[in-house]
């Protein structure tokens, strides 16, 4: 499942019975900043029929503790209290002009200690000795005449749209141009990988 489909399909998968492990890679992309997000609701539904949940992310999520609550509440439901209990304790929640503010942090050391019971945190310095050396190479890719024509056409459309001040058209043409280049680069990358 992808994060885009987990919400709509979670009910169907939940009907299959027990699931051994619910693994969510790139957990920071799961829409967790919004606890009512359809993805979070779907993950919560799936977690009711799993033996364990594992959320993985290589991106920092610590800057706003309120965004951690959906993940920790899916992993260990109720252990950190309700969303508002969590925010009052760890997100320095206080009344603001337009309702409650949850964009701060408080009791950081306590939260760090509590999270250490359910979280394995590794920094780049921790894992660097176990990684192979980085090998960077530059590959030049020749465009065929047909590819060159497509790129030239997309670039001209982009210039026209930019001159007319139509941002949606500019974005669409940029995306088209990016996809054209990506198609050429991916084919070459596959060749290089097969040769090594």
Can you walk me through this structure?
This protein has helices spanning 3-14, 38-47, 69-75, 83-90, 108-116, 124-127, 145-164, 167-195, and strands spanning 19-24, 50-55, 94-96, 99-101. The two termini are 32 Å apart. It has a two-stranded parallel sheet. A two-stranded antiparallel ribbon has the order 3-4. It is extended and about 60 Å long. A hairpin with a 2-residue loop joins strand 3 and strand 4 (99-101). The protein has 8 helices and 4 strands; from the N terminus they run H-E-H-E-H-H-E-E-H-H-H-H.
Label the structural class.
Answer: mainly alpha
Radius of gyration, taken over Cα atoms and rounded to an integer in Å: 23 Å
Task: Please tell me what the overall shape is.
Answer: extended
In percent, how helical is the residue content? 40-55%
Biggest β-sheet: strands ordered side by side in the sheet: 1-2
Distance between the termini: 32 Å
The main sheet comes to: 2 strands, parallel
Can you give the mean pLDDT? 83
Can you write the helix and strand succession as a string?
HEHEHHEEHHHH
How many helical elements?
Answer: 8
In the predicted model, the low-confidence regions spanning at least 5 consecutive residues are none
Q: How much beta, percentage-wise? A: 5-15%
Number of strands: 4
Task: List the defining traits of the structure above.
196 residues, mainly alpha, two-stranded antiparallel sheet, 8 helices
């Amino acid at each position: 499942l992808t994060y885009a489909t987990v919400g709509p399909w979670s009910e169907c998968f939940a009907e299959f019975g027990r699931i051994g492990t619910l693994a969510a890679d790139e957990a920071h992309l799961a829409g967790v900043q919004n606890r009512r997000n359809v993805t979070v609701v779907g993950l919560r539904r799936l977690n009711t029929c799993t033996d364990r949940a594992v959320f993985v992310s290589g991106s920092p999520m610590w800057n706003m503790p309120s965004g951690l609550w959906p993940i920790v509440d899916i992993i260990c439901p109720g252990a950190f209290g309700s969303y508002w209990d969590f925010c009052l304790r760890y997100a320095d929640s206080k009344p603001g002009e337009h309702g409650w503010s949850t964009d701060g942090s408080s009791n950081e050391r306590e939260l760090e200690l509590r999270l250490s019971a359910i979280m394995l945190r590794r920094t780049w310095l921790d894992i660097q000795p176990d990684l192979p050396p980085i090998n960077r190479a530059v590959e030049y890719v020749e465009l065929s005449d047909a590819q060159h024509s497509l790129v030239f056409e997309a670039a001209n459309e982009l210039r026209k749209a930019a001159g007319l001040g139509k941002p949606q058209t500019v974005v669409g043409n940029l995306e088209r141009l990016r996809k054209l280049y990506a198609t050429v680069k991916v084919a070459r990358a596959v060749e290089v990988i097969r040769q090594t």
